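Dear colleague,

As promised, here are the two records you asked about, laid out in our usual form so they can be pasted straight into your sheet.

NAME FIELD: protein one
SEQUENCE, THEN STRUCTURE:
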Amino acid sequence: MEYRDQIEKSTFTAQEGAKKAKDQMLSGTAWRTGADMLGKILGVIYIIPWFAWMGHAANQANALYSMGYNIYALFLLVSTVGIPSAVAREVARYNTLGDENMSYRLVRQMLGIMTLLGVLFAIIMSVFAGPLARLLGGSTALIPVIQSLSLAILLFPSMSVIRGYFQGLNQMKAYAMSQLCEQVIRIIWMLVTTFAIMKLGSHHWQSAVTQSTFAAFVGMLASYAVLLFYLYRSGNLKHLIHPGVAKSKINPLQVMGETMRTAVPFIVLGSATQVFRLIDNSTFMHFMPIFTNLSHGTLMSYLSYFSANTDKLTLLLLGVALTLGSVSDPLITEHYVRGNKHALATLVGYNFQLYAGFMLPAVVGMSLLVKPIYTLFYQIPSSFQLALFVFTVLQSFLLGLYMLVYPPLTVMSHKRLAMKFFFEMLIVKVVLQVPALFIFHSYGPLIATTIAFVFGDYLFIRKLYHLTHFSLKNTMRGIQGAALLTVIMSIVVVFVELILGLIFGKTPGRMISALLLVVSGGLGFYVYLFLAAQLGLLEKWFGERGTSLKRKLHL
């Protein structure tokens, strides 16, 4: 009897532990997802006043801002070399082993290393601001923009270590709040300084852009302050400063070396969109003056039409692909290691169906509502601006597909092959870029990128099929279902848009454009969800959550 009680007590304790771990994971996911979504929304909404205050130079300003940020994004990616995840993994491991002091020592040592790395990359970015500006064809106005962003690079590597520490503790509230605070303070600084310069001060739009990029540094200072506050409140700050004697021994340089070897393929493969944008910036600004008689200012405006103006909005779509990939990667790794080929094939095929279910209506919907979207965020567009925007939105389906297909290949121990495919894509892009610019001008970079990603996506998907033999029949059936619903949704959106166009006219302003988006887009989205629910696709895509969503929305 006593033995049975011990077993029951042990089982109860294990169940409680599992429940607690699940609750922690759900809570952490909720905080991280919520902060990420809110940050992305804020990162899109701020465009409306910022672009309006820039006045006649708005497109040039946005192009200049985007040029600086493309370089900055690449430096961010390289400067952290996967360290946050490594710190999170090591902290979780040593805390599980009951050696918290080792966690403190590791974090403290990694902070020192990453601070030095931040200083190094900040110096490189600042010193080479001139050559980088000339490489991208951004004129001397780009130099202070790059230098202002180098200050953010100074802080980011060490800040990412602290974020990794909180991730290892599964205290995602601190992580999420630091991200959200960074975004909020950054946007406040951008808007306040832009308004002060463009409406009250010198009206020098280049200075306003420099202050807008300097806002990244101000946001990171705020984020750092939030992280230090949570460290202090939890009592961990004093332990990090004065850690006790550790039971284990670890070489932080060795951890960093191992992490870099693991992370380099992910850095290279994950940098595809940034690298392609940098190629577009550089070649467009250097070769278009040879092929045309357009001025530098006009070329900057054209660059914003197909790159800067569209990138800010399509990032929301690409975020969906990144989320799908990050959720499925651990499961793909698990089934691959266990040799569970059937489950692996099912999961890969399901990924494609889920991606189509998300991205097809999003991409097509944005393309159909392009005029009110562009008017709301930027200005009443010309047919040239609309055509470039639609091209870029449709192209984002291919870019998102790439973000979905390259991670499975890397987690299935085919990193070198994945990198080979990436470099073959890059070669296609580089070879086609200048001829495409010569023949198609502003459409050239988009055409070269589209062909390169079609080629790359084909290589990745073909290899995934050879590795997993996922069911093409089932996958295509699911994609066809999403495509059919998207067609029906499109008919509804176009019909409603036509009716509202008759009421409000063909060139509505910002407020009416917002109304058009809410009514046309909202109705189209509801029709899509309703039909998906009736056909059982919500349950197929989301499982129990799909059933819950169906019940909550009364579908």
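NAME FIELD: protein two
SEQUENCE, THEN STRUCTURE:
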Amino acid sequence: MRKRISLLAVGALVALGLATTPAHAADPVFTLAGPAGIGLRPHPGQRGEPQKTSVEFRIVNDSTKTFDRPSTFTIDLSGLKGIADVKLAKDRGADCKLTAAAVTCKRWALWTGETTVVNLDLSAAKDSKAGTTADLTLTGTAEGATFKAATTKVRVGGPDLVLERARLKAEQKPGDKQNLSIIFANEGTDPVNGVVLEMRTTHGIDLVEQYDNCSYSSDDTSASQPWNTGWTTVQCLLEGEYEPGAVYGVDGPLTLKAAPHAFIDGLTYAVYAAGDQPKAAKNRAPAAAAASNKLAAAKQAPKAAARSAQQTADLDPWNNIQEFDFATRNTADMVATGVSLKGKAGETVTADFGFRNDGPAYLRSGEDVARTDIVIPAGAKVTKVPAGCTGVNADGTHRDQTLGAPRYFCSTGHVVGEKETFAYPFRLKIETVVADAKGSITVGQRTPEGTTAQRWDPNHGNNKAAFVLNAKDTGPAPTPTATTSATPAPTGSATPTATATPSASATGTGVTPNGGLASTGSSAQAIALGGAVLLAVGGGLFLAFRRKAGGHA
């Protein structure tokens, strides 16, 4: 009997211990996410048929482990009856089913990071009325996990800012000015309380005027964000109420000026309801104006339209933004830097190989702007290679081993600033003394065999310089090649391309947006060309200035 009582007591103690432990103390908590609100174009839409608005719901797994148990996600659609019609989008996300009452999705595992649960296409129901709202809430369940729900407020109607495309000249020359005319309308059903005008320009385009109600900032220039290098962002708050059905024009000059270093450049400009604008870039600062000078917008063509006191999301954010590419008649002189070294057999020497851009233009490309081709002289062996450089065979073909190669290709990355110098530090061991041993350093456009001169470079004769070991004379002299003038190009509009992965370089790969400007004067050769050198022809200079609304390129 005592033994049985003892076992019962132990069981009771175990049960008591379990009861005092939180039921889900170790369960992971996952966050569900979606837009705070969306607006639907009132039925039947501008083109006589329902206009869909897409909604994406996501799950965030902030842990370092995959949750490997099945999960079920549900969206109750009962509140949308008579307000909105729902369809599963083609890229729906998880394994989902749609009924009149709900959307149900299954996931067999939750990977780390942020992933899509479901994409829905919503459109206003036939008999819906502007101003009606409903909540769309995503919930989740899984054994051993907790989910934080996400709710999106759906509303029929809303504002719709539409930006008109300005008439700008694509081809220009340094110093040219032109006015950026900003005209926009509110084609929605609701007014907008305050509009933010955002303008983003690359390094070669300046905004002449500054206003008190604008902030000016430069974007991230780190190696991980090569496309942001050199961009300047201006955001201006235009106060007031912008009525539905009305057209507005910015009342104040906005002058674009091509800088002395302009070449291939881009502009994006957009209008957003105040509070919906993209996050401001780094180094944000207000204008330094001596007197009160504010930018404003004036009504141009008011029309009668329905009104609502509650502001919601823009009905079509894609028509809030415009973009423009510029091609400036300019040149950039790439000059290879000669090197002379001396040393005894067995000694190790170091040297910087590279080039400088004598401008006046800065360069920006969807791929590496330029390649430096380094031929190693006889008697030397490379023992250390900098980042951004690759060893190749003497004929330029692929080589598995980087060290000890007879030839090296080094890449600049996406941007080369005006008056910028690239130097790639190498270490070489002199194995055998060879008097007056000669190699070379050449800069130009990348080719499978090495490099070729750029068409926008006005002086091909200085693209190549000597690399001499144990020279008999006082030092190296550039190895001349036939001097070729830059070739005029028929057109200069930039072509968008996918962003390429940047190559690291040893020194000086950044662009200082407000750095020293090159002289606006042209060389004798450039004058002979009549300034007819355009960009992006034969040199692979092409840019990606495209950007989704609400994001930075």
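A couple of things worth noting about protein two: Helices lie at 2-19, 524-528. Confidence is low (pLDDT under 50) at residues 1-24, 224-228, 302-310, 475-553.

Best,
R.
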